[in-house]
């Protein structure tokens, strides 16, 4: 396993599209790093740069301290797992696992030993004689991972590997992946557009936008202290509400914007912000309230309200923003204010 380092890496595709802009990033040995961001922000490009499937236009990439910038994928010794697992349908699980070793002409006894070891680690030993079609989605994912693991790569690169699974399986596969990482201590770089997946999986998450890493940190740090309004709204669901600070009666520099998560909005019978309940969405254990502020220039505010009897549509409420729960941003740049 190895650390991965980006030194001011830029990637511009031949068509002129710059997908990665001056990215500096240090991924520790054995770390589980999740790259998250909206579609087109450069996540796959960053992963492909690590793998050697793309070359940087400028900057350097180091793996285990060695400069690999000019090295082809075969020389980097990494394993990549894509959204489509691309298992060979006509082969047994055992042969799928062994295939990469076979083409590298690994000694047969060594190969059999590695396959057995990986199958035990992934808890798929009893599936070795099945075909992929006879497996569940989560089992297929483990076989795809296992196929990468038998090669004993320096790191795993996973590009949206769970997005083909239905929600229940995804949650299960996610948990399995975390246990696996804890057990094996391998370096994993994992790409997803799903902020919930990023929050639950990552030892650290790197939030990307437009080819730039906006913030890197442990999930709860990014959630609790977003550096700008983009990160604030991208991480956490429903998205953080942004209200002009002056409207909310918050003392702040001119033009400042107050951010408050829907879970932190408090409703009362008096206060600074008068609102009308516009829509109520039951979610089982709580309700989502869409509130319309009666101040001009204010967008809708979403509140998550626990309990079974929310205020009805049309009800008048007052929104309060608990001081210890609010975030403040510069209205122009979107940057967090100290
Ligand atoms: N081979 C390519 N040639 C030109 N542009 C590309 C190529 N691959 C990706 N891009 C562009 O680079 C940007 C980042 O793409 P990508 O890394 O695939 O984003 P993500 O994985 O976050 O959705 C997008 O604007 C995309 O259209
Ligand atoms: Mg992608």
* Tally of domains: 2
According to CATH, what is the topology of the largest domain?
Rossmann fold
User: Helix amount, in percent?
Assistant: 10-25%
In angstroms, what separates the terminal alpha carbons?
38 Å
The tally of beta strands, per DSSP, is 18
- The CATH architecture name of the largest domain reads 3-Layer(aba) Sandwich
Mean pLDDT: 92
- Following the backbone from N to C, one meets helices and strands in this order, namely EEEHEEEHHHEHEHEEHHEEEEEEEE
What value does the Rg take, in angstroms? Answer: 24 Å
Determine the structural class based on helices, strands and strand pairing. alpha+beta
Low-confidence stretches: none
CATH superfamily of the largest domain: P-loop containing nucleotide triphosphate hydrolases
**Tally of alpha and pi helices:** 8
Ligands bound, unique: adenosine-5'-diphosphate, magnesium ion
The fraction of residues assigned to DSSP E strands is: 25-35%
Task: Produce the secondary structure layout.
Layout: E1 4-12, E2 18-27, E3 32-36, H1 43-51, E4 58-63, E5 66-67, E6 79-81, H2 93-103, H3 108-121, H4 137-149, E7 156-159, H5 167-184, E8 188-192, H6 195-201, E9 204-209, E10 212-217, H7 219-224, H8 229-234, E11 241-244, E12 257-260, E13 266-268, E14 273-282, E15 286-293, E16 301-306, E17 316-320, E18 327-329
Parallel strand pairs: 3-8, 3-9, 6-7, 7-8
Antiparallel strand pairs: 1-2, 1-4, 4-5, 9-10, 11-12, 12-18, 13-17, 14-15, 14-17, 15-16
Helix pairs in contact: 2-3, 2-4, 4-5
Bound molecules: adenosine-5'-diphosphate and magnesium ion.
